[in-house]
Design goal:
By secondary structure, the protein is an alpha+beta fold. The chain contains 20 helices and 14 strands.
Length: 450
């Protein structure tokens, strides 16, 4: 069990682990210089440095919680670029940490509730379960019954979580050169700054309450496809929302029949794609645990701590970028990527390699219906496990504006593949993403507005 008094000591341990990363890199670089002096090929030495750097980087990130763990969860672009023997243990460590997150003692929970809701906080509840129903990296959720009889979910933030997260990101921002060894085309400093800004927002439950209320207004209670729980109360580090039951998406993945999986997958895809157009917000955490299939067939959506605000002009730019798979001229594709700074100024890429890399990835947006499955996902991952300098993915950048978008697209695609579903992803894109349609499609209001 975690004691609040343990937090400063654990912060020191976390800082020491993060500080070990650049030291290890310096040692490996010096070793590489020695090997080149002895005649070992430069490319082989560079590969060895990259492998060892990646191994240490993901080992340390996997052992940490707080900001380092969040960064590790978000950096799927790095993980996908690593051989299975490195990325595998890292994923296993993260899973273990998430499943074994120790709960706060009831006394600490009560203290947070008293600070946020007042000394008489119990008067606002008819019932309150001290045992958490769920735990995450910055807080935990308790089941309760509000004074008016409504079942509610009470989200309580860990004391000290904010300071630990910010400290982690401040240190991680100094490790740009280390990440650059793996992905030389990446502007790591800008990406980390964007991640830090989003995490700071996630710590503020006032922002989360506002985001959830805004999404609920865009998807009202009578929406035929989705149900967004109502925000009941918010103060300080406590957020109280309506409790919803239903079948978790993770259970549908493991036990659902094909019809149920296809239905849940279509709604899941529709929600992620329609969010920016309907509410101006993109749900930034498409983990299966945040979605429930309700008894009436609608999809319930939870946790609006990680969201991205998507203005109309960016929605259009994003749509134009997503449709690059429909462009036949690879020069047009490369220019689109350069316009959005996925290829930074001065970085050269091989057009043929770029085309070969993108073609299968864009298949879901080209075919009328697409079968998402684990085999296809493994093939996509195999394309970026090569750390040689000739691999085009290592030359690509992730612009700050697209950090959360990339996370949603990559993680969401992974969930669809776990569901082993067949859905019309292209039609959903045409319906909900401005700028995705080509000129002919733009002229057809049925395709664009649905």
């Amino acid at each position: 069990m975690v004691r609040v008094s343990d937090l400063p000591r654990r912060a020191v341990t976390r800082s020491a682990k993060l500080a070990s990363l650049p030291l290890g890199f310096a040692g490996r670089t010096a070793l590489g210089v020695g090997k080149r002096t002895l005649g070992k090929p430069a490319e082989a030495v560079a590969m060895e440095i990259q492998q060892r750097t990646a191994e240490q980087l993901f080992k340390v990130l996997g052992e940490l919680k707080g900001g380092a763990m969040k960064l590790g969860q978000m950096l799927s672009i790095f993980e996908a670029a690593l051989p299975p023997e490195i990325a595998g243990p890292y994923r296993a460590t993260l899973t273990k940490l998430q499943e074994a997150a120790p709960p706060l003692p009831a006394s600490a929970v009560h203290k947070v509730l008293a600070e946020a809701l007042g000394a008489d906080w119990r008067d606002q509840f008819a019932e309150f379960d001290d045992k958490p129903a769920a735990a995450a990296s910055i807080g935990q959720v308790h089941r309760a019954v509000w004074a008016d009889g409504r079942k509610v979910a009470v989200k309580v933030q860990y004391p000290g979580a904010g300071k630990a997260l910010i400290s982690d990101f401040n240190q991680l921002a100094r490790l740009g050169k280390l990440f650059g060894v793996l992905m030389p085309g990446l502007d790591v400093k800008s990406m980390l700054a964007e991640l830090k800004e989003r995490v700071v927002e996630e710590l503020d439950y006032t922002i989360e309450a506002d985001s959830q209320t805004r999404v609920r207004a865009a998807y009202p209670a009578d929406d035929p496809d989705f149900y967004i729980p109502e925000v009941v109360a918010q103060a300080g580090d406590v957020l109280v929302t309506e409790w919803i039951d239903g079948t978790p998406l993770s259970k549908i993945i493991s036990e659902g029949d094909p019809e149920t999986r296809n239905h849940a997958a279509l709604l899941y895809c529709r929600f992620l794609l329609s969010g920016p157009k309907r509410s101006g917000l993109l749900h930034g955490d498409p983990h299966p645990g945040n979605f429930r299939l309700l008894a009436n067939g609608r999809l319930g959506v939870l946790d609006f701590g990680a969201v991205d605000r998507i203005p109309e002009d960016f929605q259009y730019r994003m749509g134009r970028l997503l449709r690059i798979g429909t462009l036949e001229d690879i020069d047009d594709v490369e220019q689109a990527l350069r316009d959005e700074e996925f290829i930074r100024e001065g970085v050269a890429v091989d057009a043929g390699s770029l085309q070969a890399f993108l073609a299968p990835i864009t298949e879901p947006f080209v075919e009328e219906t697409f079968k998402f499955n684990r085999e296809w996902l493994r093939d996509m991952a195999a394309r970026v496990t090569d750390l040689r300098p000739t691999n085009v993915v290592r030359q690509l950048n992730l612009p700050p504006e697209y950090v959360i978008v990339h996370r949603v697209l990559s993680a969401g695609t992974g969930v669809l593949c776990q569901l082993e579903c067949e859905i019309p992803a292209r039609a959903e894109s045409l319906r909900w993403i401005p700028g995705f349609a080509d000129e002919a499609d733009d002229s057809d209001p049925e395709l664009v507005t649905g």
